[in-house]
Amino acid sequence: xxxxxxxxxxxxxxxxxxxxxxxxxxxxxxxxxxxxxxxxxxxxxxxxxxxxxxxxxxxxxxxxxxxxxxxxxxxxxxxxxxxxxxxxxxxxxxxxxxxxxxxxxxxxxxxxxxxxxxxxxxxxxxxxxxxxxxxxxxxxxxxxxxxxxxxxxxxxxxxxxxxxxxxxxxxxxxxxxxxxxxxxxxxxxxx
Length: 191
Fold this sequence. Notes:
Blueprint: H1 2-14, H2 17-27, E1 34-37, H3 39-49, E2 61-65, H4 73-86, E3 92-96, H5 100-108, H6 118-123, E4 133-136, E5 142-145, H7 151-155, E6 157-158, H8 167-177, H9 179-182, E7 187-188
Parallel strand pairs: 2-3, 6-7
Antiparallel strand pairs: 1-2, 1-4, 4-5
């Protein structure tokens, strides 16, 4: 089942011009470990499953990368500016997952330990349906990063990932994201 879902996700990504363009643009940055993940992947899949003729609006395209050698916010800002210059119509957000622990407490109200890899970072994202990333390699192969699998994503289930997200933050996210209004077939699991 897991491999079938990986293939299904890869096929959806390849069939979606805006998503492939975004992957191609990020690849030009030359990052060692990276992916486009979270809401961009969720929207890609749920829009397809709901047969939306046009893509849902994205708050951002999360570009996650992992570089423990440079945790500066300046580097992420520079990478984001480069992407904006390449594709200004896309809402880029670049985050070095190796440095999340430096700002997490100020943003979410509780401290977290540093992450050790991109996979560990993806595994910590707020809902299981968004703990997914895709990367395009130099040979145009797509790689899926899905540490908790793709079952919730394809079943259209919103479920709290307790790794780093508090119940309060999860409830706030569910209210602000309006999942059921955007995608009526989605089922939200209360925390």
